Automatic annotation (TrEMBL):
The active site is at residues 65, 138. Residues 18-403 form the Catalase core domain. Residues 380-406 have a biased composition (Polar residues). GO terms for cellular component: mitochondrion; peroxisome. It catalyses: 2 H2O2 = O2 + 2 H2O. CDD domains: catalase_clade_3 (cd08156). One of its GO terms (molecular function) is heme binding. Catalyzes the degradation of hydrogen peroxide (H(2)O(2)) generated by peroxisomal oxidases to water and oxygen, thereby protecting cells from the toxic effects of hydrogen peroxide. InterPro entries: Catalase, Catalase_3, Catalase_clade1/3, Catalase_core, Catalase_haem_BS, Catalase_immune_responsive, Catalase_sf. Belongs to the catalase family. It comes from Linnemannia elongata AG-77. This is Catalase family protein. Its cofactor is heme. Heme binds at residue 348.
Length: 513
């Protein structure tokens, strides 16, 4: 776990108020002036330092997933995975690895409500002895889109209208209705799973297909599942709407208070495992994040348990500054050709440099503190490590045998190989050999039919409550068309629900006489 105490330990007693450079402060109530009633002096470093630091207090919030809470804990392996992966932290049952978890909503700002209808982020940083592995998933097994080129547009429709600065139901459903592959995520989001009771009562998923690679270099395709031991518990739409007003921080509060009470939430961890050679024969494109692998085809295999047992001591230093990236890998865990994942490999570290600066990996919460980090990156804002002292800052070099060397013979340090064919181009999956347009409707349709009566009722109610705000009826028609393609009853019921509600008239202000 990152050291509980700050890495720089003050020699002063904490009771002594000091300036940033450690000089004791004699007066924290009165600025230094020229004469009793005169102007403030430039030499009042304590005042200037305090104001200047305050002026810079805000770092940019995350462009998505801005609102969230987090906690420390550990992951314990409970199965023998040695044939599957060379990752040391997974090499035998009983190994415990410290981790930090952050849960979040996606679209809202840092002060937005925890009970918004939104997927929840489920991000984990495993501090392994071979570096940090980040599992940056959601509480849903699928996503709205399958190409990273669409991500900024998609997110813009979830944010505020550029003119009114209001949430925009037309933009929201316009985009979704034009992107049929979103339907699978839409049905999950508009079930009550879109408004979880708490972070403790929801599952987590890698959503993407990732790889585990063993000591011989053999890869298996895997999907990670974190099943809550607290049981799934959700809010109804009405409860969530009420909480938006009465306690917009309910999920952050619940996690913090449960851990303070010693009720440590846990998740049982499972894998779905597929042989690499089976991927091309499978009914679904395994690199399409809008699809699941039904458990009947690839059953869940239990491999471990994750427990959260320690609250952050400082929200900003830990929860706000933690920086997860799907590109943070360790030997034995690898990426795949999932296009969304490939886009994410770039985006996260890029945003971290913007949000936290080029040395964000030196921050205590992000440090790979269980291994020795050694490279030739130097300097830059906030270099608060020793900057590798006098070690060589270039390579190849012949001057210092203790300088970091590339590991050419270590098969575990290499990325697993991928066989490729064809030409470069921009390829639509819709034009792929074997893709049938109905493919995007089969899994959401199956999920609709699997839902029990009250679950279906809530789904329809939740969709109607949101779609009734759409002004452009062409958008409504197009979205109903997508529901119909998955199951005609689904489309019919949403249409009936919309016909039954009228948009409430805007509030009338009393005219002054
Ligand atoms: C956060 C980009 C898809 C899960 C973020 C952030 C960016 C981003 C820029 C802010 C990170 C930060 O400031 O630290 C993208 C792009 C995507 C994509 C470009 C698609 C191409 C996904 C998907 C998932 C996901 C498919 C889940 C399966 C998360 C989570 C966070 C996050 C959990 C919050 C991490 C935290 O708690 O700090 N994403 N994202 N994202 N994203 Fe994505």
């Amino acid at each position: 776990m990152p050291p509980e105490e700050p890495t720089i330990i003050a020699t002063h007693n904490h009771n002594v108020l000091t300036t940033g450079n450690g000089n004791p402060v004699d007066d924290n109530q009165n600025s230094m002036t020229a004469g009793e009633f005169g102007p403030i002096l430039l030499q009042d470093f304590h005042l200037l330092d305090k104001l200047r630091h305050f002026d810079s207090e805000r770092t940019p919030e995350r462009v998505v997933h801005a609102k969230g809470g987090g906690a420390h804990g550990y992951f314990e392996v409970t199965a023998d995975l040695s044939k599957l992966t060379s990752a040391k932290f997974l090499s035998k049952p009983g190994i415990k690895t410290p981790l930090f978890a952050r849960f979040s909503t996606v679209g809202g700002e840092k002060g937005s409500s925890d009970s918004a209808r939104d997927p929840r982020g489920f991000a984990l940083k495993f501090y392994t002895e071979e570096g940090n592995w980040d599992m940056v998933g959601n509480n849903t097994p699928v996503f709205f889109i399958r190409d990273p080129l669409k991500f900024p547009d998609f997110i813009h429709t979830q944010k505020r209208n550029p003119q009114t600065n209001l949430k925009d139901a037309d933009a929201y459903w316009d985009f979704l209705s034009l992107v049929p592959e979103s339907l699978h995520q839409v049905i999950i989001l508009f079930s009550n799973r879109g408004t979880p009771y708490s972070f403790r009562h929801m599952d987590g998923f890698s959503s993407h297909t990732l790889k585990l690679v063993n000591n011989e270099g053999v890869a298996h395709l895997v999907k990670w599942h974190f099943k809550t031991d607290q049981g799934i518990k959700n809010h109804s739409n009405e409860e969530a709407m009420e909480l938006n007003g009465t306690n917009p921080d309910s999920n952050v509060e619940d996690l913090f208070e449960a851990i303070e009470r010693g009720e440590f939430p846990s998740w049982t961890v499972y894998l779905q495992i597929m042989k690499e050679e089976d991927a091309s024969k499978y009914r679904w494109n395994v690199f399409d994040i809008t699809k699941v692998w039904p458990h009947g085809d690839y059953p869940l295999q239990k491999i471990g348990k994750m427990t959260l047992n320690r609250n952050p001591k400082n929200f900003f230093a830990e929860v706000e500054q933690v920086a997860f990236s799907p590109a943070h890998l360790v030997p034995g865990i690898d990426i795949t050709n999932d296009k969304m994942l490939q886009g994410r490999l770039f985006s996260y570290s890029d945003t971290h440099r913007h949000r936290l600066g080029p040395n964000y990996l030196q921050l205590p919460i992000n440090q790979a503190y269980r291994t020795t980090v050694a490279h030739h990156q130097r300097d830059g804002p906030s270099t608060f490590s020793q900057n590798f002292n006098d070690l060589p800052n270039y390579e190849p070099q012949s001057q210092d045998p203790s300088g970091p060397q590339e590991q050419t013979d270590d098969i575990r340090a290499k990325m697993s190989k991928v066989q490729l064919e064809g030409t470069t181009g921009r390829f639509s999956p819709r034009k792929n050999k074997g893709f049938k347009p109905e493919d995007d409707f089969v899994q959401p349709g199956n999920l609709y039919r699997l839902m029990k009566g009250p679950e279906q009722d809530d789904l329809i109610k939740n969709i109607v409550a949101h779609m009734k705000n759409v002004k452009d009826q062409n958008i409504v028609k197009r979205q109903i068309g997508l529901f119909n393609s998955a199951d005609p009853e689904w489309g019919k019921r949403v249409q009936e629900g919309l016909d039954a509600v009228k948009r409430p008239p805007p509030p009338q202000h009393e005219k002054k006489a």
